[in-house]
Write a structure and sequence with these properties.
It is a single chain. This protein has two domains: 220 residues, Rossmann fold (3-Layer(aba) Sandwich), CATH 3.40.50; 78 residues, no CATH class. Strand 7, helix 6 and strand 8 form a beta-alpha-beta unit. By secondary structure, it is α/β, with parallel strands linked by helices. The longest helix has 18 residues. Helix 3 packs across helix 4, helix 3 packs parallel to helix 5 and helix 5 runs parallel beside helix 6. The protein is built from twelve helices and twelve strands. Bound molecules: iron/sulfur cluster. The site of iron/sulfur cluster has 13 residues, from loops.
């Protein structure tokens, strides 16, 4: 298996300059030029506040949402160039697990039918082969075969998420996109499901794109992390390095706000002063300038490009070694808004 932390490892999913808008007359700029890769066998977390565009990015990366612009390659194939039928068959390689295990499983279908469904759509397996595979993946996910003919309503939230994960891995995908897949679960159940994700990665070599607002989840499972703010990735790098030494002021403020995050999962905005700009306006300059204690005139005029230094990317005019080049900026003495509360 390739080394997930090696940037030259085989790229499974390549997303380049992705843009997504909603609405015609009054446009919402949901995703504004996002680029990242997910390598074989790794976990990349996309993190951000509600409205940062992380879920839309994930859906557009699988062409479940049509991007306005940008390129997505899954296993080397440009998804804009594949026909609808082929796109459907390519989905066997990339499956999704959603946030709410209560609404994502059809209550009228048995567990057998639910987990079997992608095998019916994407494979030519016989009924017996499908049954065998369903029992196998349920076993991998800790669900006894005795439950095959029961219905979702008979299971707890954690068990339902195990069933949803079994359905996602039934076609043996290389990539699973988990959209807030543990955020509806109690902490102890959440940890069990995160352990399951890790266990499956070790056994099957699956890569994950984890969409989450929860930095604790990121720290636990992600090899690399991409921090999103208002439709853009502002920082990307190995999780341990980004957490130990954040380069972007927004990342630093998010990490400083962590104790509050664990008390109130929706509380990021209470710990970083101000609100993000309206996503219906395309902001000139840095989108974080209105909340950033380091902002200088340049920040309000020029959108910072993402710059890579030593395998880490950051989109800030003051990033690392660039600080000395920006007159009037003295981040070392300042504290981000809300820091240390
Ligand atoms: Fe703050 Fe300027 Fe960096 Fe934006 S570019 S994060 S406003 S210092």
């Amino acid at each position: 298996m390739s080394d997930p932390q090696n940037p030259r490892a085989a790229a499974l999913l390549e997303v380049e300059d992705l843009h997504v808008t909603f609405g015609r007359k009054h446009k919402t700029y949901a995703v504004n030029g996002v680029s990242f890769t997910v390598n074989a066998g790794e976990t990349l977390a996309l993190v951000g506040e509600s409205g940062s565009g992380k879920s839309t990015t994930a859906r557009a990366a699988l062409h479940l949402e049509t991007p306005d612009r940008g390129r997505v390659r899954l296993m080397g194939r440009d998804l804009a160039e594949v026909r609808t039928r082929e796109l459907r068959s390519m989905r066997r390689h990339a499956q999704m697990v959603f946030q709410d295990p209560y609404s994502s499983l059809d209550p009228s279908m048995t567990i057998m039918r639910i987990v079997e469904e992608p095998l019916r759509v994407h494979t030519a397996m016989s009924r017996d082969e499908r049954r065998e595979r369903v029992v196998e993946v349920l076993g991998l996910c800790g669900v006894p075969a005795a439950h095959l003919h029961r219905f979702p309503g008979e299971f707890s939230g954690g068990q339902r998420q195990r069933i949803a994960i079994a359905r996602a891995i039934a076609t043996n995908p290389e990539l699973v996109v988990a959209d807030e897949a543990v955020s509806a679960l109690d902490v102890s159940i959440r940890n069990q499901i995160l352990n399951l994700f890790e266990d499956l990665q070790r056994k099957l070599g699956i890569a994950y794109l984890f969409i989450t607002h929860d930095l604790g989840v990121v720290e636990q499972v992600a090899h690399r992390v991409a921090i999103m703010y208002l439709g853009r990735i502002v920082e990307l790098g190995p999780t341990a390095e980004v957490f130990a030494e954040p380069r972007h002021p927004y990342t630093r403020a998010l990490l400083d706000a962590r104790p509050d995050l664990t008390r109130d999962v929706g509380g990021v905005r209470q710990t970083i002063q101000g609100d993000p700009p309206d996503p219906t306006d395309l902001v000139q300059g840095c989108a974080f300038a209105g909340r950033c204690p380091y902002a200088v005139d340049l920040c309000r005029e020029v959108t910072p490009a993402s710059i890579e230094i030593d395998g880490r990317e950051s989109a800030c005019h003051l990033d690392g070694r660039l600080v000395a080049e920006v007159p009037g900026a003295e981040p070392s003495g300042a504290e981000p808004s809300g820091a240390g509360r």
